[in-house]
Amino acid sequence: MVLQSNLIVDFDPCSLNISGCFSADIKALKRACASVSQSGTLSPIVVNAIRDCIVGKYVIQIIRNADKVWINDLVSSYRHYINDQSGEVVTAFSDCYMESQSVNQSQLKRIYKKGYTQGHRTILKGISKLHPAAVYYQNSKEQVVVPPTESMSKVNAEDINKYYMSYFKSLKTMRVGVAFSGGLDSLYLVHMCLKNGIQPLLYHLNLTPNDKDASEDLLKASKSAASLKLPLNIIELNRQNVFEKVSFYIQEHINDISFSFVALREFIKEIEREDRIDVLLTGQNSDSFINFGVTRANHPIEALLLFFYKKIFPKLFYYDRIGPVSRFLLKIGYSLRRIPVTEIPRNKVEFISGLESDFHYFPCAQAKGPSDLPKYSMESEDSYFRWMLCNKLTNHIGGNHSVVWSDDRELRLNILMPFSEGLFLQMGMQQMASMSAILRPKKLLEEASMELINRIQVPKESAVGSKKVSIPKPESVGNFEDLTDLIDKFILGLKLN
Questions:
Q1: DSSP one-letter code for 206
Q2: CA-based angle 167:172:176, to the nearest 5?
Q3: Would you call 37 helix, strand, or coil by DSSP?
Q4: I need a surface site. Which of 130, 183, 234, 404 has the fewest CB within 10 A?
Q5: Over pLDDT 90: what percentage of the chain?
Q6: Which stretch of DSSP H or E encloses residue 314?
Q7: Contacts for 176 with CB less than 8 Å, ≥ 6 apart
Q8: CA 435, CA 432: separation in Å to the nearest integer?
Q9: What does the DSSP 8-state code read for residue 202?
Q10: What is residue 182's DSSP assignment?
Q11: What predicted TM-score, i.e. pTM, was given to this entire model?
Q12: Is pLDDT at 367 greater than 50 in this prediction?
């Protein structure tokens, strides 16, 4: 399979158009399309059969008679927007300003607080994002989340490496770079490149003036690159200059206008200007799926959260109740997370309604009236762990975890997130279901990485030049004014209610 940005598959009387950055098994895709119905909803089996033929970031449009159906990939990003009134789908958020008459005040408050809107919501009323793992039916204006149908079979390090060997084969003819922190995720991506005969360029973002964390990150990345005998290309960005770029991004990216979003976008643009790679790989989303975002090993509070997920919440899901001991333990956990104990769900209905919550690690009861969240396929509630994956997709990935790495249409550079694929979701669900993995949520990926390190003969140092790495002393970060004034001016300029 080869990496491509667009593919059209005709299957009489319908057609399928895939856009993004992906590889596709065309023969298997045509077989899967043969089961697509001419009208009505697509079964989860058909949706996942189509997904199984594609690797990478993508959005699928299926044209059936007088109907259009959109299938989003599992987690990559929000790149399409839906007009809730007309049902139309657009790819530029700036096109939505004339379609909306008012600002969503609750999401505006969230922008001020966190720098991004929640889940599929946007800062405009009546405008939604195309949700990860969702199927959108344009005629009925219905968005349905269809989670992957991965089994709970045992996943081991060999399975992970076998899967990603196939994944990386499509990159062999490309110039490949890795967004490199020196941590487990980016190290694994580099090792997998080397395993496939790909000599990647390593890029590290260094924000100046350095604070303690930035200096430590640079030191870790430098040591890891040196151990690989690969040069580290350091992209330095001044923090004040990044802040001044906010006004450039705010119109199209108001839903994700945090400082980190702008910094990463500028990081990507600097790499693009060098014109030395075709594809940039990032370990984004690894933390988001292994144990559903609870990733710190041997951390007492995180271990307690995992215990709740694995032992207490399933009782609510399957038996519609919990006992006094479980409720007492939940009170402790909620107090530690500074969540009101009144939010502890008492039954399955309250538990499931927690998808509305801002608290990503706890489903909490919310009395806000009818839910405006995308619907879920019937099969998504058959299994507690599949339902929890829906919760994760809705609340956690729905922030700016992925959108910062979405493709900028003005750039040639493609960005891939290998940890956004079905196998990695399966690995996360397996870790979720296993009490033995409660304190080592990244154990499998560590084993996979060690297996590669033991097999790979690290190549000689590349001739590609690199800046000399010097670790600056920690300096205080300048005080930058809040983004609130910029956001206020922008909202007033829209002249909306």
A1: E
A2: 90
A3: coil
A4: 183
A5: 28
A6: helix 313-319
A7: 193, 198, 200, 201, 277, 278, 279, 280, 281
A8: 8
A9: E
A10: S
A11: 0.85
A12: no
